[in-house]
Amino acid sequence: MVYAAELKLGSEDTIAKNKDFRVLSLGAGVQSSTLFYKILNKEIEPVDCAIFADTGNEPNAVYNYLQHLTSLANFPIYIVSKGNIIDDSLAVAEKGTNKGFLTMPVKGVDKNGKQVMGRRQCTNDYKIQPINKKIRELLGVKRLTGFNVEVVMGISLDEIQRAKNPLNKWQVNCYPLIENKITRHQCLEYIKINNYKTPPRSACIVCPYHSNKEWLEMKENNPDEFKFAVNFDIKIRTTSSNGVKNYLHSSMKPLGEIDFDKYKDSQYSLFDDECEGMCGN
After folding, report:
1. What is the number of structural domains in the chain?
2. Cα 149 from chain centroid?
3. What tens-digit pLDDT sequence spans the chain (281 residues)?
4. What 3-state DSSP class applies to 185?
5. N-to-C CA span, the chain
C-alpha cells in the first residue's frame, strides 16, 4: 500500500503506478468529513485520495464545505460527475442514456390510478459508477480485476443498516466509524471539540428521501433551494412521457402545498435507507 504522504499530491501519473489503493468516498457531510479530519489527524489509516461524486444538485452549503475541506487536505481530492441529475431527468429521452428518465425513487400515480415507484438508480448512476470510473482512471486500467481497492465510507454506528458488502470482487468497503462504534452525534461532538467548521447535511436538494423535518428546515433556512425543489416537483408531473404523475413527497401531493408539521414523520429520512453508503454522509 502506498500512502498519500509518499505521493506527489495531485499527480495522477504517480498514483497510477500503484495497484493497491485506498479511497475516501467524500460526501462533505457530517460522517465523511469526520473521517477526513481523522485521516488528517492520523487517527485512522491514511488514504491515497478522496473522491467527491457531484450529482449537480448538491446544496450550496455542501459545495462550500467541499471547498473548505480541499483547502485543508494533504491528499488529492477529485471531483467527478456523470452529469446533472436534474437536467438529465427533464431532458428529451435518449435511448441508452439517463436523459429523459427519472432515476430517483419518486412516488407516482399512473394513468390507471395505480401507485408506482420510480427507479432507484441515482446512487449507482451518479455516485458509485463515477467513483469507480475515476479509480480505474487513477490506476490507469480499464478493468479492476485482480486489484484490491479499499473504499472508506462515512457510515456511522446508528446507520449500520446502510453498510453493505460490495458486489465487485476488487472492492473492499471500510467503515471506520462503525468499527470504532462512533455515532453521528459523536461525529458532531468530535468536530466541535476540535473546533472544526460544522459540516452541512449532504444530500441532493430534490432527494425524495428527505424527511419532513429536512423539508421544513430547507423551506425555512434555504428558501431558494426549496423553491427549486418545488419547481422540479411540478416539472416531473408535467413533463412525464408515460402518463405517470410523479411526486417528490410520499404523500403524493405537490411539495409547495404540504404542511410538513402535519405529516410529522410519515416521510422517512435518507438515513433509513441504505443508499450504498454514498449519499447523505
Report:
1. 1
2. 19
3. 322 232 222 333 334 344 589 999 999 999 999 999 999 999 999 999 999 999 999 999 999 999 999 999 999 999 999 999 999 999 887 777 778 888 899 999 888 889 888 878 899 999 999 999 999 999 999 999 989 999 999 999 999 988 988 888 999 999 999 999 999 999 999 999 999 999 998 899 999 999 999 999 999 999 999 999 999 999 998 776 677 899 999 899 999 999 988 765 554 454 444 454 566 56
4. helix
5. 26
Angle between helical axes of 184-193 and 30-40 (0-180°, round to 10): 50
Work out whether strand 149-152 and strand 115-117 pair parallel, antiparallel, or are unpaired: unpaired
At residue 98, φ and ψ (nearest 5 deg) are -85, -10
Domain range enclosing 261: 4-277
What's the grid cell of residue 131?
467513483
Helices in 75-163 by DSSP H: which ranges? 85-90, 122-123, 129-139
What beta strand segments (E) does the chain contain?
A: 21-25, 49-53, 77-80, 107-109, 115-117, 149-152, 171-174, 245-247
Q: Which residue has the cell 487517527?
A: 43
What grid cell was written down for 263?
405529516
User: Which among 243, 179, 166, 202 is positioned nearest to 69, based on CA atoms?
Assistant: 202
CATH number at residue 232: 3.40.50
Neighbouring CB atoms inside 10 A of 31's CB total 27
